[in-house]
Write a structure and sequence with these properties.
Blueprint: E1 2-5, E2 9-10, E3 16-17, H1 32-42, H2 50-64, E4 72-77, E5 98-100, E6 110-111, H3 128-141, E7 148-155, H4 162-168, E8 177-181, H5 184-187, E9 203-208, H6 218-222, E10 228-231, E11 250-252, H7 257-270, H8 272-289, H9 292-309, H10 325-331, H11 335-344, H12 362-385
Parallel strand pairs: 1-4, 4-5, 5-6, 7-8, 7-9, 9-10, 10-11
Antiparallel strand pairs: 2-3
Protein name: Glycosyl transferase CAP10 domain-containing protein
InterPro entries: CAP10 (IPR006598), O-Glucosyltr/Glycosyltrsf_90 (IPR051091)
Pfam family, one: Glyco_transf_90
């Protein structure tokens, strides 16, 4: 039994939706953060269908690993940004355990896989395994050398404050970038071929920039087999901390945005072997580490570790509502939403056991974070000195 409680929101439907939140066990390095995220406890309105599909994802976890998911009572926040700020709990014993789609270094919110892994019908986005399959198919049809030798980003420039606005100024040949504003309101009514995720891998380089919080786009961008230019993120989701700069992506400085993008593009076009290797490393990370099997592994381990910390026996609340697969099918408001549920439904139990969750290793995390900072500092210095632009 998983009881989801917390702030109740009206999602624009007749039913009211609750919230969720968890922790993880995934990639060999990223698994460490399950312990780290839960460490403090060891001693906004939901819009569209994100809340529904998050609950749907938990149902699929139960189906994928029957009998392994513990009884828990959890609070889940479905807004874009973290809310449990560390500064608020300096003189308090413990923060409340709130699960959310992202967190940052200044928050205690616990990262949990976002709803788009099971689909996003408003934007005609299919479940993650289906979208990934289509992206990989398109990748194979266009070799990297024949892609446009520029960096590409498509998204809503009205979301995320100043940074996405600044990115628009880089939309010029002299910056080696193509920036396209996407009107998502129009997208909900009619999806164009250009906006399909599988059709956005036609450039040698892809840009990732956050919105108000993290963006669900990172996994689709990494799947493109092109080096990803990552604009210094303030937030992380459950898997992004497993990425390594200059192996899986190129770090871009936001205080010298257009210049930094131009420098990275020039480096890639003059060092094509190394650039392709970076793109393939990001693609391989997505294919191997972010399979739905691993996503469910992460969810399971997070819930198991969280359940160990509960000091009470979870019981259904007075107003709790039991949800099953049929509940979602019956309340689906469109053919697209129903088809997304059907496509993302777990059809059979896992044929293998969950992956292994290593013990907490704070030194490993600190060492990794320092290495990442050193790499980013090296790239910034090289950019300032004009190095690495030629073979």
């Amino acid at each position: 039994m998983i009881q989801i409680s917390g702030e109740i929101f009206n999602s624009g439907r007749s039913s009211r939706l609750s919230q969720l939140r968890i922790i993880s066990a995934l990639f060999q390095h990223a698994k460490q953060y399950i312990h780290e995220d839960l460490a403090p406890w060891a001693d906004g309105a939901c819009f569209q269908t994100r809340a529904l599909f998050s609950i749907w994802g938990l149902l699929q976890l139960i189906e994928f690993y029957p009998g392994l998911v513990p009884d828990i009572d959890m609070l889940f926040g479905c807004e874009d940004t973290p809310k449990v700020h560390k500064r608020t709990f300096i003189y308090r014993p413990q923060p409340p355990p709130v699960f959310r789609y992202c967190s940052n270094m200044n928050s205690f919110d616990i990262p949990f896989p976002d709803w788009s892994f099971w689909g996003w019908p408003e934007l005609h986005i299919k479940s993650w395994d289906k979208e990934l399959s289509e992206i990989l198919k398109e990748n194979s049809a266009m070799i990297w050398e024949k892609r446009q030798p520029t960096a590409f980003w498509r998204g809503n420039t009205n979301t995320g404050g100043k940074l996405r606005k600044d990115l628009q100024h880089c939309n010029a040949a002299k910056c080696s970038a193509e920036i396209i504003h996407q009107n998502w309101n129009n997208e909900t009514n009619m999806r164009s071929e250009e906006s399909k995720l599988a059709q956005q891998c036609k450039h040698r380089y892809k840009i990732y920039v956050e919105g108000w919080g993290w963006s669900v786009s990172l996994k689709y961008i990494l799947a493109c087999d092109s080096p990803v230019f990552l604009l210094s993120p303030n937030f992380y989701d459950f898997f992004s901390r497993g990425l390594t700069p200059m192996k899986h992506y190129w770090p871009i400085r936001t205080n010298k945005l257009c210049r930094s993008i131009k420098f990275a593009s020039d480096w890639g076009n003059n060092n094509t072997v190394e650039a392709q290797a970076m793109g393939k490393a990001g693609n391989e990370f997505i294919r191997k580490e972010l399979s739905m099997k691993h996503v469910y592994d992460y969810m399971l381990h997070l819930l198991l570790e969280y359940a160990k910390m509960l000091q009470f026996e979870p019981m259904p609340g007075k107003f709790a509502k039991e949800m099953c697969h049929e509940s979602f099918m019956c309340q689906a408001t469109s053919h697209i939403e129903k088809s997304v549920y059907e496509d993302s439904m777990v059809k059979s139990h896992s044929k293998s056991s969950p992956c292994f969750l290593p013990t907490r290793d704070e030194n490993r995390i600190e060492t990794s974070m320092q290495q990442h900072l050193d790499i980013k500092r090296m790239i910034a210095e090289a950019e300032d000195r004009g190095l690495f632009s030629q073979n």
